[in-house]
Design goal:
Elements: H1 2-6, E1 22-25, H2 30-41, E2 47-51, H3 55-61, E3 69-72, H4 76-86, H5 89-94, E4 105-108, H6 113-121, E5 129-133, H7 139-146, E6 152-156, H8 170-189, E7 197-200, H9 207-215, E8 223-226
Parallel strand pairs: 1-2, 1-4, 2-3, 4-5, 5-6, 7-8
Helix pairs in contact: 6-7
Length: about 240
Amino acid sequence: MALHRALHLPHPWTPSTKRTPLLINGGSTAVGAFAIKLARLANIHPILAIAGAGMPFVSSLLDPSQGDVAIDRRQGPDGVRAAIRAALPKENEAHGASGGGFLRHALDAVSEVDTLRVTLAELAPEGGARVAYVLPPDEEMQNLLYGEGKSFEAEFVMSGDLFSMFGPKPDAEDFGFVYLRALARWLAEGRLKGHPFEVVDGGLDGVQWALEELQAGRVSGKKYLFRVAETKGIR
């Protein structure tokens, strides 16, 4: 939805034939990681993936030979922006830009105010850039995304659009019809891999522990799974 519908990027069955820089903020999230995998299937490079504790996981998904770069968000906004600019020297030089220059496609897989500020900061200033985000925007985010003078297009992406849960969207339904079948095929063929996961002992009795791990920020680049049948008292 984000890459191939909102950002208008090439599909894996018609892969890109030119360099198409793509920024993904939140590369170690499930959304961000699958976006990286799909982008690579579509030959979209260079991929600039921002992550924190999940840097090793994100790096394993990228192809440095194509210019892909993992950027550590823990160096702060200024450091991240500098890393983005450093990753696009060819594009900057070709288009006479001193900033991100040719960065016209971005996905914010975290979609909070702070991450959006970083995501939007290096988009091409002359217009034509597109950004996709995945959480409903509050007032401050609305201003960042849709305020006066914005030179980019923004789109809120949610899976419910595939089924017209929030109003009719025939194009999204058709998109989902095709892509859900394509994803199943790519998974079966091994061209696309699932997200890393850890099975928590004790079934549903382990949910509290897992929530505390998530809240404390000790989990990155994987999902927790629970076997309900292992819960005490359930037969």
